[in-house]
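Progress narrative, work stream C.
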Amino acid sequence: MTLYPSLKRLSLIFGFGMALVGVLNAFPSIFGLPTPGPYPAIVLRPAIFFACVLVFVLNSPFGEVLGKRFGPIGTLAGFVADGAVVTIMALASWRFYVVMTILDSRLYFFSAFDAWLAVGAAFCVVYLCWRAWGTPLALVALALLLYFFTSDYWPGFFNRVPPDFVEGASTTFWYGLGAGILGSITATMILTVFVFIVFGQVLEGTGAGMSLIRVSFRLTRRFRGGPAHAAIVASGLFGTMSGNAVANVVGTGVLTIPMMKRNGFPAHFAGAVEATASSAGQIMPPVMGAAALVLADFVGVSYLTVITAALVPALLYYFSLFAAVVFEARKLNIGRSPEMDAEMRMQAQDLLNLVMVFVPVAVMVVCLKVGFSAAGGGIFALASSVLLSFVSPDVRRNPMVLLQAFGAGGVAFANIMMAVGVIGIVVSVLGATGLPTDFANLVSQYTGGALFWTLLAAMAASLVLGMGMPTLPAYLTIALILGPTLRHFGLSELSLHLFVLYYGVASSITPPVALTAYAAASIAGSPPLKTSIWAYKVGLVKFIIPFVFVYNPVLLLVDEGGFNMVSLIDILLRTMLAIFLISSALTGFDQRRLHAVEIALRLAAAITVLWTDPLVHWPGVAVGLALFAVHWASVRRAQGV
């Protein structure tokens, strides 16, 4: 029984080494120091990917899982399966280096061995993704693998001429720097995202996250329903660092959810608030998640441009969460926060610990502003975070926590790479078959070429495709399939990809497969489906805001058509009014309970307020304000004021 803890410790050691390689690889381009990097792509990509496989297997041995269900036989079977996967991936990684070295100097014709090895590597990656992320993404990859080789048997729209097995399998799945498992997405993850994942783990491992929660409680203690507001603030800030919604729920929810329940919020609502706030951390600048870094690479803009564009929509979304909590607190007659537990009382050290959070982020933003790449900004942020971590007495007493944080960063990266490998399969199959372009034509045909209905279809498809997936693969899958559809309308690449990213994030709180909401439900002790429905309800504005910035790109602050402050203020104020109308209508409460007619009128007014035609939205604004005025006046009369 001591074997599994030993393997997990070994995975941290390998993870630390892997993280160190990823960081060193970015150093020479920044400082010009005589370090071993940057490493050649034909060495770095297979080596890191194989290291990720090894780290993942050591950290999550299949023998442990099967052993609990089937005893010694299951343990043996699990270790045999893991051993086979590691062997195949080691052979495939070595073969990738050999073949790419040959291709650097002369022509090379792939053999049947290369093709079968590529297929074997693809199935191993799908198996590892299933182990790491569950069934949905693995099923998508298996379906596309099946389709790739049997496309000539599929009916109608899906019928294609299948590729030659040897050439097609080799170049599509494994041997290539542009597409496939070791393609450009893997390169972006290794060269750019890796540093940010380690950075997030260092912030979490040094205790800054706990101080962030305490300060958030302190700042919101005078608001009605204070712990819920604190959960929103803490989860938003923590989520932008971690880039992982489920990890964010687990990291902050264990403290914020019980506090919300003690303050009088029902368990399902407490879980819903934490889930929606945690999921939105990935769209909240300045760090956001791995998907934003990949988005910048896809669109071909700087990372600073992406986080600038994402700022106002993210703030509007968090404003909507605050509004939802305000109206729910009124409905439940919840006052200010009760006296905090000793654990949640802010101390002077908490303010010092915030230096570890905000200074590295500021350093990163400054680096991006002066022209460094995203990886360069991440390196500087990571270096400043390590130095500033000694502000914490916990780190001074035990500096090993920094090494453990690096190791945890390597383990976290290994888990993400299992999903990225599958996305490489999805990207390569879609590119080889041309399905996205044909799908775009099909959607345009059925929607009559109308932008609104096409966006609505894209939203629905995005939510379905993203269910059960982590944000990065959900975003990439949706962008690849639906991107050509939206390009037909002349949308900018940035607004198009941000639209898709929002729904990739929103899919994590969308019933029936709402991973983030289910994680929060397990902490809150509430029914998972009910929690996910309430998370969907609380976070409904997340589903509306992408439509707002597509029709009003001035919200992105980097609109190619030019920036107009008057237009920005106009749409900002109208969106805030619409948020109040929608939040109160969904809660069914403002100063008092709302009648069904009032709810319907508020929802209708919200729609007209967001309409692009001034002849519609200005009367809508007048009606919306009148609804609030009449409601408040009737309440004051009833109170005899």
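Work stream C, second folded protein:
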Amino acid sequence: MPSPLEILKQYWRYDAFRPMQGEIIDMVLSRNDVIALLPTGGGKSICFQVPALVMNGLCLVISPLIALMKDQVDQLNKQGIKAYAIYTGITNREIDIILDNCIYGQVKLLYVSPERLQTELFRERAKKMEINLLAVDEAHCISQWGYDFRPMYLQIAAFRNEILPQVHTIALTATATESVICDIAEKLELKSPAKFKASFARQNLAFAVRSVEQKEDKLLEILARVPGSALVYTRSRRRTQEIASLLLRHRISADYYHAGLGYELRMKKQDAWKKGQTRTIVATNAFGMGINKENVRVVVHYDVPDNLEAYYQEAGRAGRDGKRAYAVVLYHPGDKLRLQAHFQQAHPSIAFLQRIYQALANYFKLAVGSNLLSYFDFDITDFCNNFNLGYSEVYYAIKKLEEEGLLELTESFYHPSRITVNVDKAELYKFQIANATLDPLIKILLRLYGGEILGNFIRISENQIARMLNTTSLVVKKQLEHLNALKVITYDKMRDKPQLAFVTPRYDAAKLPLNRQRLAERSDIQRAKTEAMIQYAEQMEKCRTAMILDYFDEVVFNDCGHCDYCIEKKRKISKSDHIRIKEMVQYALQKGPEYPEEIGKLFSHFELPILDETILDMVNKNILYYDDQGRLCKRNNQGL
């Protein structure tokens, strides 16, 4: 059995684990339940992927994010690790093949959404799999106290108890308060879980809020003063384009990104930014998931986020290389009213939720009781026009229905073309002889994709096949459709439109099972989160970092020294303050050596940074020194 470090070196080419990763992996391999809270970019996935490769069998990963599932599976496959993802939008035939491979093949990781756990097909097949670990990603989704609650997560414990009673669980998240962590342990029914919580403190990241009347001018000033790669977040798709145009007019390299763009264009823009060809990307919060660009120097929030969890996660994309970076919120006096209005819009009435659900059922022509986990291409603009509804009110109603576990909206959905051959080699050969016009296409498919295409869904490129056949992609698509009609292959064509799925069989809208009490409680929780975000943006009487850490229940006694509050406080400290503090240090050491912590008790919370600076200055000038016990001492031949 290879060691975790050997696995890390072989597949990830790292010589050592990041802080806490090794300890978490050891605890998982010791068959303990684990809760791991690691910040964005902290390497959460390694904590279950490495154990999955060390142990026999496969790791079942629960994740609510299709984009993240697909990204991780693609990366694992590139590294030579066999992994699959089952999500809304792939065919039943492909699901069937994937599940068979997980039972009989050498699959190491299977990613599924929590909704999949409720289907009879999956539950029966899971019983036959050799599952060695259950990994619950984005585990904060299980808690209604969290910022992204998903009721389907509440079913994970029942699934585990029935199907995987001997399998241990690792629950992972990047942002969670202490109450959410406790909720995760309780709702997943973890058995004496080992808890690992990395500090939310980022010593190299300076937080700031700029209260301004003209956000455009301040943004230009920030980008002029902070060189290097930049990321600007805004709420609306339209504004991403407007701000990118503004930056380009001022000769700042920029581009825009949002979920409404086609897949290839999104990837082109994203890659140009990652490679440094574009300096600034202006984006909605659809951007950033799975992107690990280390040298981002500044993240600017042009619009204030809804809560500190989302803000911390997005701001945390700056400075992952450990070098100085900045996270700035641009705040206008009118933003408070906009945030409060947005909160109201994001919590529509029960009657409106029922109306939207009925309209969607009518739009897709769904009968009551039908379409469990069915998915549809969804043009929200066309839907709004059909029913004379506003875009924002529809969007937030769908998100609330999604939060209630009834729908699933995937905005930036890209599903490449895939095919599998449904017949064996002998039958395929007979077909080629009998169908000379299709023989060249089949030969190209076998040459490009080999024997894997027999019984497995393989991603294909119609353009590449067309070039090799010296024809057009339209001709190739028609031939593939013909082969599909003949049942020789299954051809799952490329889709690049937002997908809307009915997670449950379609309900009668009047009897929609909405949890009214939970909706009311969630509204109160989100209102408190909105107010905490407003307080963060408006206050200038506390260290920004300390405020964020306090929000996440992390106790700190010192200010960070580099946020906007701390910088402003330093500017106000005069020479007389240094002299006064130096005299107090002299007084504290009159009776002999003393620990710095004891000296610190003589000073207020706001004086501690200048105390540290004063002591450091006195040590550097050979006035003070530290003894073997870490106590401060004055030199006998030096006066204070």
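The two ends are 62 Å apart (CA to CA). No further action is required on this item.
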